[in-house]
Amino acid sequence: MVAEDLLLITGARRLVRLWALYGRMDLLFFARGPHTALPWYLSEVVVALAAVTATFLLAERFDDIGTWTRPQVYFLLGYALLVHGLIETFFSYNIAFISRRIGRGQLDHMFIEPLPLWMILLAEGFAPVGATSSLLPGVGLLLWAASQLHLAVGVAWWGLFLVNVVASMAVVLAFAFAWGSLAFWAPRAAEELNSSTYELSHQLAPFPLDGLSGIALASLVTVVPVGLVAWYPSRILLGLEAPPWAPALLPAAALAFVALATWIFRRGLRNYGRTGSTRYSDSGHRR
Amino acid sequence: MALRAYVKTAAMSAADVGENPLFLMDFALRLLRVLVLLALWRTLFAGREAPGVMPLATVLTYTVVAEVFSQQLAVSTTLSVAFWEGTLVLRFLRPMGLVRQFAAEMSGRWALHFALFSVPLVVAAPLLGVDPRPASPAAGALFVISLCLAVLVGLAIEVLFGAITVALEQPVWLVERARVAIATLLSGSLLPLALYPWGIGDVFSWLPFAAMAWAPLAIYTGTGQPLPRLGSQVLWAVVLWPLADWLWRANREKLVGYGG
Fold first, then answer.
1. Residue B242 burial (10 A CB sphere; 0-12, 13-18, 19+)
2. Which among A140, A156, A208, B151 is placed 20 to 30 Å from B249, CA to CA?
3. pTM metric for this prediction
4. What are the residue boundaries of the structural domains of chain A, listed by start?
5. To probe the interface with A, which of B16, B19, B24, B25 has the most A CB atoms within 10 Å?
């Protein structure tokens, strides 16, 4: 038991050291000068804001969207941006687009590092500077919405908020890893698969989904869980879901999605162990 | 003879799409987007007077037709891919015009997507409670002209942004992603510009991006007068093509860095 605790503590310390290292490298990229940093940052801001602007404009024009008041819609948009920003913070550099790393044969680069794979996946995508492009607007929008909604936020609410944000991130990543793992079996065909899964969660997350029919809505919280990225957790945090068990649904779903994604990813890894990457010819060219 | 070469290129490009069955994932995304938007409009318009010039039925038709012609209303060639892979030099070696090569490949991809997704979506539209027909036969005829102009303007913008990427020596996907994000908002391919608040839709409707999507879709749904929209499309095509051509030629030397 003591040995396990020690392992956990040393593992956590190592992870923090790696985050510091990757965070410094991210900062160095932006410190190369305005010619590199400005276009990159502005482009990321534009992409992040564009995803929520459509819903924002509709809320401005119509005052409300169904049962959602304008500040509640802002909360939804802020939440969606926050989840997106946190994923960008911790899982950039194609960790959240794992099909690219698998499809391009770049897992080999990870296997030669003297670290367990889970730690590499947690550390290598850390980009705290670049990700502020979506994180800051998300936090700003959330604070603005919260001030207009006069939310009574206590310790319990903050706890619920934290659990929901982590669960939403887990759902997005699990969905990406589950589909992205197809690249183990079809590296060329599935290399860009996570572009589609990313588009799905990025484009559809900022919409209130209340008006959808039963089957369509059920699909969007199970088969294609974009409803769990921002819509459902926002309903929970804003008190729009009445049943007492409702707050437990998202964490439970996140656990199920993570378990499924882990199972598929590990099966893919086993296959990879047998076949390796076929993307590069002996002379080093990509097929 | 020359035309045959482009038709053959288009056919090869169409076959290329079929090699990767995962393009069905894109169809799923597009269908979901339509379903979400249709539900959103119904929620928004429920118990409300028709705001401005577009009643609910018109907005629903607009949404479905925008998705049916989404590739034509948001023109995208494989220029960025050629930059990224450094294969532009191979294009220069072919006995075909550069832009025409890309356009031929693009139209090949369109054909397959149109047959497998757009046509079924039009057929299924009544099941979704949407009338996909144009506002009138005249609107349908003018839409065809407007769509051709939209593709022309879209191609000009594609070449222009390609040239800007090279001129500013920026990463390919950086410019591409920003352009797509801006175009989605300003072109009206996602939301009708008439529904934008504070009158900004009126301003956007005169910008070049609106000539790519808003103009043909507004004509199709009978929103506003068609002639000013067609006029603005012609104007942008006349302005943008010489500009794109000049910027492309002015930066040809820099293409070496992108494999040209």
1. exposed
2. B151
3. 0.88
4. 37-275
5. B25
